[in-house]
Structure formats: structure tokens, C-alpha cells
Amino acid sequence: GSWPTNNYTVNSNVTVTLSNNYRDLLIRKGANVTLTGTTFRTLRVEEGATVTFTSATLNMESLYAGTGLNTGIATLKFADNTSVRVTEVVEVEERNNINPDNKKVTFYLGDANTDEEAFQVKGNGTKVTASVYIPNGEISVQNCNNCAPIYMSGQFIAERIESGRNVIWNNNNCGAAPMVTTDDTAPVVVCPGAQQLCQSVS
After folding, report:
1. Cβ neighbours of residue 48 under 8 Å, at least 6 residues apart?
2. Can you tell me whether residue 172 is helix, strand or coil?
3. How do beta strands 167-170 and 179-180 pair?
4. What DSSP designation does 173 have?
5. What is the pLDDT of residues 88-101, one digit of tens each?
6. Which end of the chain is more exposed for a tag (fewer CB within 10 A), N or C?
């Protein structure tokens, strides 16, 4: 299907509820936004902003959380258990909190094209509480030296999974304690088929 045609920008430090679907939606820093729509081609959430999704199914092409400026926590909240369907990429920058209320949230990345999809987390205290499924593509979690740990809580299934140092992987269904990657050389999982990562691989 086609994406919506209208674009919108939420200004900084504004509290608002939006009920429409959008082609390109930008949420400026410090805003507090409730989204009741289901479809957003490109959604950008700047540092310090909080977004709450109320729909149980979301459709996106690209989702960008934070800007990497490390000046505030971008928070994505979900009112209920939610399926997030993404056709290209999810990028999560530093100091983000995805699903702090611990709803059952699953990101499905894929489309009918042959190109790969990607779920990228760029570290320094980011928390992701969600499962991620990418049949054709990569989950990449990279942290900087001497940065706060990244917490990845959920089931992670992808063609490739790359984990940098100081990343804490946790899945309550795995039956084992969470593990943290501390090696100087980032552990990498590469396999010809889907790979499920319940713990870090060293």
C-alpha cells in the first residue's frame, strides 16, 4: 500500500495528542506526544522527547530515536502490547529508553524486496525492552568505550547479530542469567539462517 501524504513537526517542549497518520513526522526535543495513528513512513524522535503509541499495530518505513547528542533521554512508550512493522531501519541512539513500561512489544523488520533491513543501537545507557525479528538483515548493538551499559531485554532473531562490548542481553525465556559482553573485540554472530540470541556470544 501507499504511505500517507501529510507531514508534521511537533515543536520542542509541546504536549499534544495526534490522531492522524503521517508520511514524515518529526518530534522535537522535550515534546510529550501521544500518537493514536497506525502508519508513519518516517518517524524521528529527538532527544528528551517522549512518545506514547496507543495502537496495537504500527507500520513504518524508518524509525529514528534520539540524535546522538546525549542531551536528554528519548523515550518510546506503548499503551498496550504492540506489533511494530518496519520495512527499512530502526536506529536507536544514545540514552534512549524503548518500552520502559515492559509491554509485550515486537519489532518485525522486513518487506517483499531483496534488500536487507537493520535494527541498530548505538549505545551509552540505552535500554531496549522488546523482541526483534529480522529474517533478512542485521541487529547491531555497539557501545563506546567507558560508556554506560546497553540493556537489551527480549528475544532477538536475525540473519546476523553483532554485539559490542558492555552490552547486557537478557531474555526471561532463556532460563539463564543475563550476560554482559566485556571483550575488547566485539563478539559477532553470523549464520546462514535465522539466529536467535538469548545471551551474548563471546
Report:
1. 29, 30, 71, 72, 73, 74
2. helix
3. antiparallel
4. G
5. 999 999 889 999 99
6. N
All three cell numbers of 193, joined, read 539462517
Band the pLDDT of 11: cuts 50, 70, 90: very high
- Measured from the Cβ of residue 173, the count of other Cβ atoms closer than 10 Å reads 8
The position carrying cell 546476523 is 160
CA distances from 36 to 20, 53, 80, 124, 178 (A): 7, 6, 12, 30, 34
Strands (E), 93-166: 96-98, 105-109, 117-121, 127-129, 131-141, 150-153, 156-163
C-alpha cell at 42: 518516517
Please say if the pLDDT value at position 67 is more than 60. Answer: yes
Amino acid at 53: F
Between CA 50 and CA 14 the distance in angstroms is: 10
The pLDDT tens digits of the residues spanning 113-158 come to: 888 999 999 878 899 999 999 999 999 998 877 888 999 999 999 9
